């Protein structure tokens, strides 16, 4: 673009940038890149991710440039940036969710198969001990320790006060610990 030709003179009368010129889109990027980066940075709290999201925002904007509401380029770009940041925050990569098959360690760092088998056997034995507990501890411990539910969720599901759930969980853990110690002394954990 010539130094005398400004972005504002190239815009259509309604405030949209011309959809067919790359120069006008370049000007849009220059004009709003700090805004888009700031929106992304505020949401994800990570500068590297914010830079990537800024690029994704402008790529998406370029791809869908014909759908920009007339006169609302700034707001439209900010909304795209917010949506990209939300998608990033909800993504499996961001949450570091392990997908099936991703949990395998490289062979050099993986524990020996024997120790893996023992660990699985012990975990199975502990789960069986929890399931064999007497009520009211069994249901509370199964939900908390095996199903990983919070005491508030358990209280709601069982119709008991949260304080009661905390007490039953504490007593159930104590009983489990005592049983594990007894079995360890006798050499019969699994």
TrEMBL record:
Pfam families: Sigma70_r2, Sigma70_r4_2. The keyword Transcription applies. Residues 125-176 form the RNA polymerase sigma factor 70 region 4 type domain. Residues 28-94 form the RNA polymerase sigma-70 region domain. The keyword Transcription regulation applies. GO terms for biological process: DNA-templated transcription initiation. GO terms for molecular function: DNA binding; sigma factor activity. It comes from the Bacteria. Keywords: Sigma factor, Transcription, Transcription regulation. Gene3D superfamilies: 1.10.1740.10, Winged helix-like DNA-binding domain superfamily/Winged helix DNA-binding domain. NCBIfam families: sigma70-ECF. Belongs to the sigma-70 factor family. ECF subfamily. This is Sigma-70 family RNA polymerase sigma factor.
């Amino acid at each position: 673009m010539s130094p005398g030709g400004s972005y504002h003179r190239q815009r259509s009368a309604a405030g949209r940038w011309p959809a067919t010129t790359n120069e006008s889109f370049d000007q849009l990027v220059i004009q709003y890149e700090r805004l888009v980066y700031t929106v992304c940075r505020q949401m994800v709290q990570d500068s590297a991710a914010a830079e990537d999201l800024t690029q994704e925002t402008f790529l998406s904007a370029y791809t869908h440039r014909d759908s920009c509401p007339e006169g609302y380029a700034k707001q439209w770009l900010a909304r795209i940036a917010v949506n990209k940041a939300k998608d990033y925050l909800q993504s499996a990569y961001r949450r570091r969710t392990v997908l099936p098959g991703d949990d395998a360690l490289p062979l050099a760092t993986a524990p020996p198969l024997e120790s893996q088998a023992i660990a699985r056997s012990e975990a199975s034995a502990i789960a069986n001990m929890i399931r064999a507990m007497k009520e009211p501890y069994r249901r509370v411990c199964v939900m908390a320790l095996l199903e990983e539910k919070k005491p508030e969720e358990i209280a709601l599901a069982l119709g008991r006060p949260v304080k009661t759930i905390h007490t039953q969980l504490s007593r159930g853990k104590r009983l489990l610990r005592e049983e594990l110690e007894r079995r360890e002394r006798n050499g019969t954990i699994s």
